[in-house]
Amino acid sequence: MLNSRAAGQFATKTSTVLAVLFLSGLAHADDWTFMDDRSSPQKLVESYYFAISNGYYVQAYGYFQKSSAPQNFETWAKGYADTKTVSVKFGPTEPDPGAGQIYWALPVAIDAIQTNGKSKVFTGCYKIHMINPGMQSDPPYQPMGIVSASLKETKESYKDAQPGSC
C-alpha cells in the first residue's frame, strides 16, 4: 500500500507521462495533410504517390480498380517499404470512351527517393478506367481507378527522363 507521499509522487509522474503522451498524440492528430483527388488521371496518380510517400498504403491500394488490385496487400505494401518520397511527371493523354467505359493511357516518369537517399527513376504507363458517371445507376459509385501500371527503371536522371510510351 502506498503512503500519501508516495501516492502523490506516483500521481505526479503518471500525470506527467499521460500529458506527454496526450500532447504528442495531439501534435500527430493535428497533421491533416491529405490528398484524394480523382478528377483526372493525373490527379489520381498524384494522389496515389502522395499516399505512398506518406505511408498511407491502404489509401494508395484503394486507387486500384477492385478487380485490378494486387492480390496480396502485404506483399504489395512491403514493395514500398524503402520508398521515402515519389515525384511524378506526365505525358499527354486523351480519354478513350466507348460503351459507357472511359479509359486513359497515361505516360509517366517517376522519381522514387529511397530511405537511403538514393533515387530510382522509372518511366512507363498507367492504364486508368472509369465507368461513365452518367451511366452509373446503382450504388456505390465507382470512381476512376488504376487498372495497371507498366514501369521500367531507367538510368536517366529524373530531370532528363521523359514519360514512357503507352
Give a written overview of the molecule.
The protein contains four helices and five strands; from the N terminus they run H-H-H-H-E-E-E-E-E. The termini are far apart. The longest helix has 26 residues, at 4-29. Strands 1, 2, 3, 4 and 5 form a five-stranded antiparallel β-sheet that branches. A hairpin with a 4-residue loop joins strand 3 (101-114) and strand 4. By secondary structure, the chain is α+β, with helices and mostly antiparallel strands. Residues 1-28 have low confidence and may be disordered. It is globular and about 50 Å long.
Layout of secondary structure:
Blueprint: H1 4-29, H2 41-53, H3 57-61, H4 73-78, E1 83-90, E2 96-98, E3 101-114, E4 119-131, E5 145-154
Antiparallel strand pairs: 1-3, 2-3, 3-4, 4-5
Offer a quick outline of the entry.
With 166 residues, the chain is an alpha+beta fold.
Q: Give the integer mean of the pLDDT values.
A: 85
The termini sit apart by 74 Å
Biggest pleated-sheet summary: 5 strands, antiparallel
Uncertain runs: 1-28
Key descriptive features of the protein:
166 residues, five-stranded antiparallel beta sheet, globular, single chain, disordered N terminus, alpha+beta
